[in-house]
Amino acid sequence: MRKTFFISDLHLSDTRPDLTALFVQFMQEKAPTGEKLYILGDLFDFCVGDDENSPVMQQVQEQIQTLTAKGVPCYFIAGNRDFLLGKKFAQSCGLILLPEYQVMDLYGEKTLICHGDTLCIDDEKYQRFRQKVQQKWRQRLFLALPLCLRLKIGQKIREKSQQDKKAKAQSIMDVNAEFVASQMQKFGASQLIHGHTHRQNCHIYPHYTRIVLGDWGEKASILAVYENGEKQFFDK
């Protein structure tokens, strides 16, 4: 039976070879059995540009290139950790870049997909930060810096983000229900698939379904959507 895979929030880095091993296993064993693969952000723990030629980025490129060479398209929506992943990286391995919101026909069901950070509007501090770093002129300035300096800045941002999370209430780091409903109406979709919050679940509402992808840790979090409408999480 035909199926499509969705993953997000892997947070791959050279310091977590266990996560990379899980990704490689998925890409070699399970991903080729699907029609398509959608990566909904935070594939990397942090990305400072396409010229970041780290071992983990090379491995990811190789795995995506191998998958797309087998005829399985691989799509990517940037997350809050890897929004600087660009066209050069994508072209090197056949990755298809998508905008922050994408509507797709998923086996007959109009489905909206996104990373999910834009849905967490109650976290006003983060949204202000996001607005700044998404400005193209700021990104161009950052990418013009030497790679070694960008890596140091990236490390400081990661550390600051971890500290901020500890001080925030869990409620503001989740999606805003009213905003989600308005987005579903705006795009005319009956199903939403997103990541970011790390709260793997399937929420059924009167007018739509919201599927949340989990993050990767000791186990992977993989969603398969089948052509008959069945949905299944794999967390091995």
Distance between the termini: 21 Å
Alpha-beta classification? alpha/beta
Helix percentage range: 25-40%
SSE string: EHEHEHEEEHHHHEEEEE
Q: Biggest sheet, strands in spatial order?
A: 4-3-2-1-10-11
Let me know the average pLDDT.
92
- Percent strand equals 15-25%
- List how many beta strands DSSP finds: 11
Q: How many helices?
A: 7
Provide the low-confidence segments as ranges: none
Specify the biggest β-sheet.
6 strands, mixed
> Rg to the nearest angstrom?
17 Å
Question: What does the overall shape look like?
Answer: globular
Please give a structural write-up.
With 236 residues, the protein is an alpha/beta fold. It is built from seven helices and eleven strands. The protein has a six-stranded mixed sheet. Helix 1 (17-30) links the parallel strand 1 (3-7) and strand 2 (36-39). The longest helix has 21 residues, at 147-167. The radius of gyration is 17 Å and the shape is globular. The mean pLDDT is 92.
Key phrases:
236 residues, 6-stranded mixed β-sheet, 20% strand, 7 helices, 36% helix
Task: Describe the protein's topology.
Layout: E1 3-7, H1 17-30, E2 36-39, H2 55-69, E3 74-77, H3 87-93, E4 95-98, E5 102-106, E6 109-113, H4 124-133, H5 136-143, H6 147-167, H7 177-187, E7 191-194, E8 201-204, E9 209-212, E10 222-226, E11 231-234
Parallel strand pairs: 1-2, 2-3, 3-4, 6-7, 7-9
Antiparallel strand pairs: 1-10, 5-6, 8-9, 10-11
Helix pairs in contact: 1-2, 2-3
